Amino acid sequence: MRPAWATGRGALSTLAAPALALLIALTVSTALLLTVGASPGATYLTMLEFGVRPDSLVSAVNRSTIYFFAGLAVALTFRMNLFNIGVEGQCRIAALLAAAAGASLDLPAPLHLAVICLVAVLTGAVWAGIAALLKVWRGVSEVLSTLLLNYVATAVIAYLLAEVFAADSVTGSTRELPPSARLPVLDGLLASFGLSLPAGAHLGGAVLGAVVFGAAVHWTLTRTLYGHDLRISGLNPAAARAHGIDPRRMIIVTMLVSGGLAGLAGLPDLLGNTYRYGLDFPSGAGYTGIAVALLGRNTPVGIALSALLFGFLERSALILDIQGIPKEIVTIMQGVIVISVVVAYEVVRRVERRRTARLVREETARTVASEPVGQAS
Amino acid sequence: MSPHTPSPRTPPPHPPSPRSPSEPGRSPLVELRHISKRYPGVVANRDMNLVVRPGQVHAVVGENGAGKSTLMRILYGEEQPDGGELLLSGEPVRLRSPADAIAAGIGMVHQHFMLAENLTVLENVILGAETSRWGLLDRRSGRRALEEVSERYGLDVDPDVTVEHLGVGQRQRVEILKVLYRGARVLILDEPTAVLVPDEVRALFDSLAGLRARGLAVIFISHKLDEVLAVSDHVTVIRAGTSVGDFATSEADPRRLSRLIIGGELPAPATRDRTGGGPVALRSRGLRAGPVAEATLEVARGEILGVAGVQGNGQSELIDAITGVREISAGSLHLAERDVTRLDTRQRRRLGLACIPEDRHRQALALPATLWENVMLGSEDLRRRGRWRVDRKAARDLTRELIARLDIKAPSVDVPAAALSGGNQQKLVVGRELSGRPAVLLAAHPTRGVDVGAQAVIWELLRDARDDGLAILLVSADLDEVLGLCDRVQVMLRGRLSAAVPAAELTPQRLGRLMTGTEPEPAGPVAGAR
Asked: Which residue in chain A has the smallest CA separation from B357?
């Protein structure tokens, strides 16, 4: 076989699909802008100009940490052909309990944060674990159960807020977290690189957490037996099973870890922005996470990049309303990106498969021709 | 290999004449000439020839995996051949899709019915080929056409009953009607009797006689010899992707046929003197698991026990039950002296069980994963040493060593397993399973679909491992392999394992008869007694 199989071509095809997807998305958005009577060139330029302002960039990065955690949670399950559609519910119920726990405890700063994180991770894991158990015990499709558990989560949250955690509150939310439970801002870190931010913009401490967790997930996926088993289970469940990788155990562990990561996705907002959980807590990140995971091809680095892209798009959309262009165009753009990603990966996969088949055919023809027909020894 | 062993995949010494003299003078309806088809890593068909004449039931027989279904998919337009020619009534054609095939008068009755349960027979038959009048469904003309077809071929079914109320035999009849309704002159029946009870089989054969009398051509795919002899006019035998025999059924000798199907005419790999059996390493008593009705066997250290049988008699399920993929419902399984009946796959592998699965692509390898990842998958040794970590260096080193030692043609250990040819993939699998120095090896069709060179290497590996004291359970349908490698043989027929017979007492002829059930099983000593 030829050495072309090695890394060079692999990297190329890894980039080919997202590039193709973005190209399709850009074409569709352009067509869309033309139909609503806006100039595509001007619109993109406006978005870009606004989007690369330092305060915009910081805001985009902050936003992207949420998508990054949600994307990681979804991607982990995608890797073994499971679909955790319930990141949204896991994330929100985890944020509520974390907020409640954080407000009711009085601990020194690092410990306080750690306990809150732990509560969030455990809550998310438990919520996702319900779906895992249903699947393992009763064969209930996790697509359905995680999705439906989102609605259950909404109802449970409304109940807990009204009756337990915010019963005596005028704002309808949990009590505000004390300073010891808030994430530090990283402006000082930026300053040490000689960067200063305009007033009012802060780089959230969650970014550091995202980097740490991203590295940890990457390491787990590539360097641990669990990561290996996860990969093989996704690529060929029958082979995994035949070699002693218990599919039920893998489903449970993976859903628990995914739920834990989903639990973390609510924390950047809670610990760096709102400091309390109420009915107005930002929502929707769990669903965006599905798109982010798809675009990022289920690898931590890819997810980081696609989370940044989504954060950037959302931030730069804010300028559109001022310009009289409906900012929903960006939401449509994100949707189109996701659909194009699916299409583009399929296209690239088919091209790859055909290439592989051809290579192998040539190779077979060559070996068959050169194979001695008679005695082997 | 020892010098007196010729290559096992050379053609049989006396190939049957391609055209027997009793051939009726009618010109062929279908002709396949020198068809070849390759899938990545596997040659599914090579130089395949088939001539089907009108007014005939033409049986295509061969083992599972011999290439029958690929050939039929090509004829039905589902696959494109890589080489060769397809002629219909003497005209070369290209069928790009089943729609093309149907338009050309070729119809397929799949083994698994494709009927809408909640629709009536009539609705099912006309589905997708509806006639319409002014844009409205014209049931009346559809019904008339169906009744006509049904009467002409003597296929009686009530057109208004919903399919869910029909039995299997009747459903099959609806499938046949569906095909005839679309004007087929050539019918392909894929293992039609597999789902039928004996009475229904008889009814089907009557129907086929009706079709034949009307001048249609029926291609009857099967691996059951008795049925083929009962119903067909002509037989084509397919083995290892190529047609190896073609003659009128009246001239077919059942023994010769069975030898052609399972390859008993080929010389076997040289037997080697046994070093003598050690203590029992694998033992099952009255094992029951799904289609496996009763399996009692004992494999000693330093011994190869063969489980011979025509595919589909429960061998795959037996292997799955021993590896722990399939649950054991009764009986016991011991590894060495340890009862492992209730242990899971991982625990059994830790106790020294290794397996070469019968389907490389399904159970042995994750094709998109790299070679070293695949080695990692099956190496208990690497897993144990790494504990919870993946020791990439150790995995790569082991893979490199396997590649060098077994002469696996691979550019590096980081290419996907899919990039290797079938033979090289299989060598990797065998090498991997042996690398952990297991106590018991299950080898299911270890050389199926691999080239001659790899076959020789794999046989050699198995023999060496046996001589080193490994207990091997070899499942195979290849007579050469069974007789050449095994020390003792048990035959699996309809889910039951026969008593063990020393390989030295078996001839290919006798084993073939045992496998097809034409000779009662040996009333020898109980399995395991040596």
From this structure: A242
